[in-house]
Amino acid sequence: MRIVLIHPNYHSGGAEIAGSWPPAWAAYIGGALKAAGFTDVTFIDAMTHHLDDETVRARLRALKPDVIGATAITPSIYKAERLLEIAKEEVPGAVTVLGGVHATFMYQQVLTEAPFIDAIVRGEGEEIVVNLVRAVADGRWPADRAAVRGIAYRDEAQGIILATPAAPTVKDLDAITPDWGLLSWDAYRYVPLGVKVAIPNMARGCPFTCSFCSQWKFWRDYRIRDPKKVVDEIEGLVTDHGVGFFILADEEPTINRKKFIQFCQELIDRGLPEKITWGINTRVTDVLRDEALLPFYREAGLVHVSLGTEAAAQLKLDRFHKETRVEENARAIRLLREADIFVEAQFIVGLDNETPETLEETYRMAKDWDPDLANWAMYTPWPFSPLFQDLGEKVEVFDFEKYNFVTPIMKPQAMDRAELLDRVMHNYRRFYMRKALFHYPWRGTGFRRRYLLGCLKAFLKAGVQRTFYDLGKVGYWGPQSKETVDFHFDEHRTRAPLPAATDDWQAAAERGRKLDEPTEPEAAMACGGGRQQMEDA
Questions:
Q1: Where do the B12-binding domain residues begin and end (predicted)?
Q2: pLDDT averages per 10-residue partition of the chain, 537 residues
Q3: How far is CA 449 from the centre of its chain?
Q4: Beta-carbon neighbour count of residue 367 at 10 Å?
Q5: What CA–CA distance (Å, rounded) separates 449 from 454?
Q6: What is the reported pTM?
């Protein structure tokens, strides 16, 4: 039984400007397959290696696999569909499988437009994929596919698309052993430090329900691993693959304060901060909560925190249910700087009420708060999110390939998309020009200076290559080019049907949230549902 996993060759000029990120999904799925006895697993990373369709076609022709699996987030869905179409052309007898968050919720649309996909995995895939592959290996596919929980497929005889009951979530995350050896580690580099980078996972899910987010919808219930097991994995990445920097894949690893403290202490006890540094995404409220612990986090090797400050205008914060205050954002950034932790402020721009004045306000906030880095992400409602449904006819673009946080999907009432892009680039130019001249070369020595100059190098490299924000593809060369910018939206893509009915999925999600009922500590507010934090004891 030969299995091939493929990562689609999709690029947008967003987070990838900081490095080439290892597709962790392949390691986790591959590890589960090998633990189940399916050892002939090959991974093709078409994205990192910039493999075109014909190169992938030749690889599949040579490998002749029995099962071919791919994954896709929303912007890479068409690339993934095309890869599996090629797979079916070259190896007609192979079972083609697609997983990922987009296909999980939009499986009716995906299977309608891509009939060459034999099955879609709904949700986290380790156990579902193993059960699917067992059915293939035992000769029970497709006759018994209805018995495989957690998949969707086309029933050609009835001419309909069917979904089997939702599979339970993986309850014992510590039992999953990722096969990091499937990846070609020399290709995965973190540009600011020039070292190999990894994206391990400490927890899955989130007990909160931000209107724009897919984490809680996809993972359903919140589960966290034993911190010692996570550090075992990181130590293996350092020892076996020479990794020098990692980013925790969790949406918010500090949500369980007790476990995060244990994780940091374990890193310190093993002396790993001397070998590897790391970064996280987290919330402003968690930074304020842990003010006294920030030096301890830095001692554990935490050097980069990306903060969801989201927007300078309080109106926007309320729209996203963030429930944080502008003044809290400023204080959190100051506390991180004082702890010698590099801080990146994230702003969401491009709402329907965006104006040149509100964009200018975000720049002034970034300047006054003085984070080390700032990022202006385009407002992008996922097609399966409550926010997308709430926006209704305000959503005009249904070309999911452009749902990448760098392309203006939404059009503000007061400006067109080209002007929005231009004003965002104006913010970037001013912010990083100021940092390059007066901040990065002069503030701090040793690691701090090297890291900041490495960040500047990443931005300059992407700027010269015209990959940043896809500027080369859309034809943006500065304010003088606003009239000729072309985002190349595929206008043949029309409004997709509502996501498939997922009553069983939502019921499982509700059960999961009740298992981890959060408590209400004093004055701490969450991103998705009010004054909530995970229980500390």
A1: 9-143
A2: 97 89 96 97 97 98 98 96 98 97 94 96 96 98 96 92 94 93 96 96 81 75 94 98 96 92 98 97 93 98 88 48 67 94 92 89 92 93 84 92 95 94 96 90 83 90 87 92 94 76 57 42 36 48
A3: 28
A4: 14
A5: 8
A6: 0.90
- How far, in whole angstroms, is CA 53 from its chain's centroid? 24
Please spell the DSSP secondary structure of 184-211, one letter per residue. -GGG-EETTTTEEEE---SEE--SS--T
Residue 114 bridge partners (DSSP): none
Residue ranges per structural domain of the chain: 3-163, 188-484
Helix (H, G, I), strand (E, B) or coil at 43: strand
Going by CATH, does the domain composed of 188-484 fall within 1.20.120.790?
no
Report which of 267, 247, 425 is spatially closest to residue 342, judged by C-alpha positions. 247
Nearest CA among 295, 297, 287 for reference residue 371: 287
Cα distance between residue 27 and residue 249, in whole Å: 13
CA-CA distance, 459 to 404, in Å (whole number)? 18
| Strand locations in 379-484 (E) | none
Q: Cα(120)–Cα(150) distance, rounded to whole angstroms?
A: 8
> 243-247 and 151-155 as β-strands: parallel, antiparallel, unpaired?
unpaired
Cα 63 to Cα 4: distance, rounded to the nearest angstrom: 8
Instruction: For residues 464 and 322, give the distance between their C-alpha atoms in angstroms, rounded to a whole number.
Output: 36
